[in-house]
Each structure stands twice: as structure tokens, then as C-alpha cells.
Write a structure and sequence with these properties.
The complex is a heterodimer of chains A (about 220) and B (about 110). Chain A is mainly alpha-helical. Helix content of chain A is about 75%, strand content about 5%. Chain B is an alpha+beta fold. The chains are: A mainly alpha (about 220), B alpha+beta (about 110). Chain A: It comes from Neobacillus rhizophilus.
Amino acid sequence: MNAKELIELNNRKRKELTKENEEYYGNMLVYIRASMAVSEQQSEELLMELLDHIIEAQKEGKRAVDIFGENPSAYCDEMIKQLPKESGKSTAYFIVFLLVKLAGLIAVVNGIGDIIIHYFKDNDQTVYVGTAIVTFIIVACIIFLDVVVILKWLQQSVYKVSNKVKDFVLLSFIMTLSILGMIFLPRLLPNFGYVIEVGGFIYLIAGVATLSISKWLDRKYCITK
Amino acid sequence: MSLRSQLLKGILEGCILSIIEKETVYGYELSQKLQQFGLNDVSEGSIYPILLRLQKEGLIKGEMRASPTGPKRKYYQLTIEGEKAIAEFREEWENIQKPVDKLLNRGFNDER
């Protein structure tokens, strides 16, 4: 059974839990899934084992907290420490896949924006390849950092009594900073590299093509499983 | 980690290996077996971190397969490394068990 099938089965089986057990298990689930470096297959297999255990013990009137203890975050940390790491190769494939997808999306959005603007005024369609590549790298890095921050925050929030207002302010601040960074950092770049003229339609076609190819690659090599 | 909990962990590890040596089991079954042998104070959940560590060390191997009652479960079996480890544990245990028993059970007069 691969990770995706395990997740689906997990979703179905979780419905058998009592409300109290569901809450306890649900927190463990988020906590373990949000830890990035570990093998997805192995962590899903572990989560399924834990779920099966609760379901069987529940029949004898036991509660999840009786089985796994009062300190689930320490318990989960102990297991996460033992889980095998995701292999470097599959992580690399996954990141490249995401980058290709991101490039495709940016091209599509850019293309549509360009076409709309072009209706109203004759906009500049000059693209400096070097600048474009560095801009892309900046955007990708910011998004990557955001994902890391959000996952970490999600993991912490499960077992920490958190201040909702503080969390909200902090997250909005990070998001605002990210968006400002994505818009203004590239403007600081000098124009360099090859100069090409790219109209909105070329952007759009290139973007759609990139997205289709990434989708096909995903299906063929099961990158997202 | 305190010496005491380390010691208990080591013993529990040996017990788990010994159960898996006799038959392939899945998690819940394993916890039931431990309790049947009277290890009631061992919290059920504590087997999972140990199972993960034993897998990491290559002493046992987990495999998802269909159980007699239907659903797929992860069954554990010993590897060759694991067989060596349980033999070692047995020997170490025998070396320590007798002296400790003797120490604990000695009467007041034995010491004089």
C-alpha cells in the first residue's frame, strides 16, 4: 500500500473513533505529518498502526490517553526521531517538480495579466532572461520559507496553548512581508542576461505547456504518490 | 535518560524481540502478549517507539500484509541480526538475573 492509499484508508477508519479518541489521535496525526524530513510512507504506516491500535483498544473501553500517555508531544517526538528520513533522491525530485509547477503557474498568471493589460495600453514586453531567473529563485525561496514556517507553526500549535490573536498577527506579518518581498526584491535587480520579447500569449502557452508536462510527469513517475 | 528507565527499556526491548522470535505479530497483538505475560505496567504505547528503533537498527522487519480477519496490518518478524541480538540478550539476562535474585532474596543472616 502506498502513502496515498494509506491516507485514504486512514480517513475512512478514523470515523470509527469515539469523539475523545478522535481528538487525541487527530492531534498526533497533524503533529507527525507536519514533520517534514521523515519518510511519508513510513510515517503513514506508523499512523495506521496507531489508529488500528486505538480502534481495537477502544472496544475494550480503553481511551487513547491510557494507551499513549498524557504527554503526546514528547511521545510523538520520540517516534519521529526513530522514523527513517525521506530519501534525498525523492525529496529532490519532489522539489524540482514543485519548482516546475510554480514556474508554469507564474507564466500563466503573467500571460493572462499581460494580455489584459495589453488591451488598454501598449506595455513593454521585453524580458531579461538573467533577471527573470533570479526573480524566480527569489520567489521560490520565499515560498519555501513560508511553507517551512507554516508547517512548524502548525506542528507547534497542536499541543501548545497558543494565543490566537498573537498567532494571527504574527502569521499576517510574515505573509505581508513575503508578498512585499516577492514584489519589491526583484525590482532591486539590475536588468541583465539575454533580451527576449515575450508577449502575453507566449507566456500563456509556455505556462500551460509546462503545467501539462509536469502533470504528465507526475502521473508517469508518481512523484506526489 | 535515567539509568533506571534505560535499563527498563533494554529489558522491554529483549522481551519484544523474544515475542517476535516465536511468531510474527502486529502492534496491538504484541502489546496484548506483553500484558499476558504479566508486564502490565508497561504502557501499551511504549512499544511503538521501540518497534521503530528495532527496525532502524535492522533487528526486525515490518511488512504490511492482510490479516486473517481481513484488514491489512504491519506484521513484524526477526531479521538475522535480530536473532543474534536476542541470543545476546538471553545470555546477558542470565548473567545478571541470578546474581540479582541472590542479592535481593538473601536473608538477614546470610550477610554475616
